[in-house]
Design goal:
alpha/beta, Rossmann fold, Dihydrodipicolinate Reductase, domain 2, 2 domains, eight-stranded mixed sheet, six-stranded parallel sheet, binds nicotinamide-adenine-dinucleotide
Length: 416
């Protein structure tokens, strides 16, 4: 079997674990370690030292020296079978369109977009070229989200009426540290006030609610708290006080968003990244027959096992393992080594599925319509907040096709 030739664009923390001291391996490390059927032939980043570090890793894994370039357009003429984009958010659509126009399948990292026009451009480009594009929402491959999706599909939670999720992650050091690392979040938090990272929690929820596949988002409302956490962190930190102490951040500490769906469900999202806290996606699904909560790893079915008293519910904390039989095969058979391959195994499974879809010419498991629908929440939330938290209409990027089209769940086509 000939190996798939891959070009990597964006070799920072996520792309190549550049500058990371926490044992992360990044997407590049994951591919080098776990995907025998692909070879990285081209690497691209704006910074030469990042190129050199990535090339060194590739050679250290026994592969040939890759082509290195600072101009992403060069990657399109380098004979690759696919590109993986893990640049800053502002470049995702631009690079993806360039790749798709060149007929090169694209895997695009997650993030929101500030620009609804960009969403339409991406859709139009896909419809004109037919080039596959995969949105790399790894949380759609995570164990918890896989479990609750399976419980919903089996009907165990009944009719789903409400979902909730957070991107709650103390990123104060990453954001302030951008003054040295060039990390884009520093600029983003300075200039914008919105739900800037909706897709980790919203992706799995949208899949559960069949968004773009019989259902759609109709409107949303967002509200942001004041911005205090980042400034306080900076003025108390000698590394940043002099350089960033005067900076005024537009981004509120907590941004909450409510989305209404055409089929009557509602969704609550929270962005919480500039105050001390634990990491939490908090995916919660409420149905007529049951409830799932990721934070306490709880499944509560309407089977009389738990009564309404608080102590009774506490017995359901961390009981999700009792439902492990419903997990997809991928999660039942995962190895210790694969569990270590980025974000507790979900990155490994996601990449495996992407490469397999490419090879077997299967439709991408998270497609362009899903990508732009989830990403657009950023722009729509900014609009709502700027106008005093007014409701904002959500565009139908499928142009009516959502009524009949069928998306796939991430474990529907390949379950192992
Ligand atoms: N799925 C996940 O779990 C996960 C985790 C972290 C980050 N991400 C996503 O990965 C992406 C990158 O995030 P990060 O934290 O690695 O950021 P980063 O700033 O560390 O890395 C981005 C890299 O892109 C490069 N870049 C920017 N514009 C470019 C251009 N025009 N040409 C070539 N290279 C360019 C930058 O030089 C930088 O090295 C973001 O979309 C982020 O949301 C996803």
């Amino acid at each position: 079997m000939e190996k798939l030739k891959i070009g990597f664009i964006g070799l920072g923390q996520r792309g190549a674990a550049y500058g990371m001291k926490d044992g992360s391996i990044g997407l590049l490390g994951n591919v080098l370690k776990n995907s025998d059927d692909v070879v990285v032939t081209v690497v691209c980043d704006k910074y030469r030292e990042r190129l050199a570090a990535a090339a060194e890793k590739i050679v250290a894994h026994g592969y040939d020296m890759p082509m290195q370039t600072t101009d992403y357009k060069d990657v399109m003429n380098a004979g690759v079978d696919a590109i993986i984009i893990s640049t800053s958010w502002d470049m995702h659509v631009k690079v993806a369109i360039e790749g798709m126009k060149a007929g090169i399948p694209v895997a695009m990292e997650v993030g929101g977009t500030h620009n609804i026009e960009d969403c339409w451009k991406l859709v139009d480009c896909y419809e004109e070229t037919g080039t596959p594009i995969f949105f790399m929402e790894n949380c759609c491959y995570n164990k918890d989200e896989a479990l609750v999706t399976a419980l919903v599909r089996k009907g165990l939670l009944g009719e789903v009426v409400y979902c909730q999720g957070y991107y709650a992650h103390d990123l104060r050091e990453e954001i302030a540290g951008g003054i040295d690392t060039h990390h884009y979040r520093l600029k983003e938090y300075t200039e914008n006030n919105c739900e800037n990272y909706p897709t980790h929690q919203l992706g799995p929820i949208a899949k559960i609610l069949n968004i773009t596949s019989g259902n759609r988002f109709t409107k949303l409302v967002s509200m942001s708290s004041k911005s205090a956490g980042l400034h306080e962190y900076i003025v108390n930190n000698p590394k940043y006080k002099d350089r960033l102490g005067d900076r005024v951040f537009k981004q509120g500490d907590i941004t909450t968003t409510m989305i209404e769906c055409e089929n009557g469900e509602t969704i609550f999202l929270k962005l919480d990244t500039t105050l001390p806290r634990l990491y939490e996606r908090g995916v919660t699904v409420s149905g007529t027959k049951g409830f799932y909560c990721q934070t306490t790893e709880s499944v509560i079915l309407d089977d009389g096992k738990y009564n309404h008293e608080l102590d009774s519910y506490k017995k359901a904390f961390f009981n999700q393992e009792d439902y492990a039989e419903y997990l997809p095969e991928d999660w039942q058979t995962i190895t210790e080594e694969q569990l270590k391959a980025g974000h507790g195994g979900m990155d490994y499974i996601m990449l495996k599925h992407f490469f397999r879809c490419l090879r077997e010419r299967k439709p991408m498991e998270i497609d362009v319509y899903e990508a732009v629908t989830w990403m657009s929440v950023t722009a729509l939330s900014a609009r709502s907040i700027a106008k005093g938290s007014v409701p904002v209409e959500c565009p139908d990027f499928t142009r009516g096709k959502y009524k009949t089209r069928k998306t796939v769940d991430t474990f529907e086509v390949f379950n192992n």
